[in-house]
Amino acid sequence: MWRMIRKTMLTMLAIVIVMAGVGSVYQWVGSSKDKKLYQPVGKLYDVTDHKMHLYSGGQGATTIVFASGWGTVNPYADFYSLYERLEPHAKVAVYDRFGYGFSDTTGRKRDIDTITDEIHELLHVSGQKPPYIFVGHSLGSLETIRYAQRFPDEVKAILLVDGGSPEYYESSVVLTFFPLISRVLRTTGAMRALYHVDGFAEWMNDGNNEDLQLPEELQELIRKGTLLKIGNRDMTDEMRRSKKNAGVVLNGQKPLDIPITVLTADYFGKLSEDKRWMDSEAKLPNWSVSGKQIIVPDSSHYIHNYQPDLIVQELIELVKRK
Asked: What SUPFAM superfamilies would the database entry show (predicted)?
């Protein structure tokens, strides 16, 4: 019996190894093709000896700077519903942190001061003019608040799109298994194969396809970005350091002498099910001398896919504010 069990286990192991090898080749061939088509829509700038991507457009005296959440592989596509509505009213700048979008993957430590230094340098070398209004989605809230702490003369206001509070992230368990699993699925070709399953793309994009009906070329950018970027070492280290990064922000200036608008998704009426998140969101406006919270109805974590007009209206009010 033990011989049979051992033989069965060895056979299964051999099958897994062969499948992983075949999947890796499948991923390598697909990635080679994707890289040729995955071309920057904005411009690449030299930042710390690597290439960092920024898309800019619009008109006006104020620049709205967009900071994506963790794991949002292509910020340019993700924020489309906002900047295309805002460009007649203000300048916009969507940056890709290292490991995201069209920026390089560097392996540099993803501590919060390194990240904000890179953003600061990118905005400078690309010719953007402060003061800025920062829009931070999800974990992007940490870098927007930290940027305002470190460069207070450059920030006019902050708007958080279901952005978590530093207190919330500092007290949370760091889920490093998620980026690691994502990397394994990507590098073994399993994720590429799953994209052929109906509904998988919509699930991965958290409603980008169904709720916003993105143009086909942007849907394709998200797919290619996921298959080329998800779970890379920069993303993984960013998640690994999120708790420590939140602690750094907590030790910085509070409250900030700028308005902060906190938009909190109602998760289609289920917000109250996560009391710790709800309580932290209610306290998040206290990071500003002039803060406010708005519970956004009929929305989920990516509020900008569900209620973009509301966000645009709040941003235009911040642009007009003296």
From this structure: alpha/beta-Hydrolases
Alpha carbon distance 210, 200 (integer Å): 12
Please state the φ and ψ torsions of residue 294, each to the nearest 5 degrees: -125, 125
Helices (H), the chain: 2-37, 75-78, 80-86, 112-125, 140-150, 166-170, 177-187, 190-194, 200-204, 208-212, 216-229, 233-240, 242-250, 275-283, 303-306, 308-320
Contacts of 11 (CB under 8 A, 6+ apart): none
Amino acid identity for residue 66 in this structure? F
Angle, helices 112-125/140-150, rounded to nearest 10 degrees = 70
Tokens of 72: 């949002």
* pLDDT tens-digit series, residues 126-179: 999 999 999 999 999 999 999 999 999 999 999 999 999 999 999 998 877 777
Output the pTM of the full model. Answer: 0.88
Decide if 236 contacts 179 (C-beta within 8 A). yes
Looking at residue 75, what DSSP letter applies? H
Model pLDDT for residues 80-138, shown as the tens digit of each residue = 999 999 999 999 999 999 999 999 999 999 999 999 999 999 999 999 999 999 999 99
